[in-house]
Amino acid sequence: MKLIVLNLPRDLSEEGLAKLFEEFGQIKACNLVHDAETGNSKGFGFVEMAEQNEALAAIKELHGRKISKNKIRVKPADQQA
After folding, report:
1. What CATH number is attached to the domain comprising 18?
2. Is 5 a domain residue?
3. What's CA 74's distance to the chain center, in Å?
4. In contact, 71 and 7? CB cutoff 8 Å
5. Could you tell me which of 6, 63, 79, 80 has the fewest CB atoms within 10 Å of its CB?
6. What angle do CA 65, 46, 35 make, to 5 degrees?
7. What is the pLDDT of residues 21-45, one digit of tens each?
8. How many domains does the chain divide into?
């Protein structure tokens, strides 16, 4: 299940993002979105987890958690705003 993670601290690395989700299960893919010109993080990324139940547990535990000074949002990537 693919998740979108929003409102991430701009200095968080892909490794840091993956580490947040590792406690909930196997991660198939993890990537941050970067600005094409500057290479800086845009403050959001995607995490794909192997099992849906693990992804749902991650959403439940991480949505609204404070990382640095940011309250992150986690939801299914295919969910329409």
Report:
1. 3.30.70.330
2. yes
3. 6
4. yes
5. 80
6. 105
7. 999 999 999 999 999 999 999 999 9
8. 1
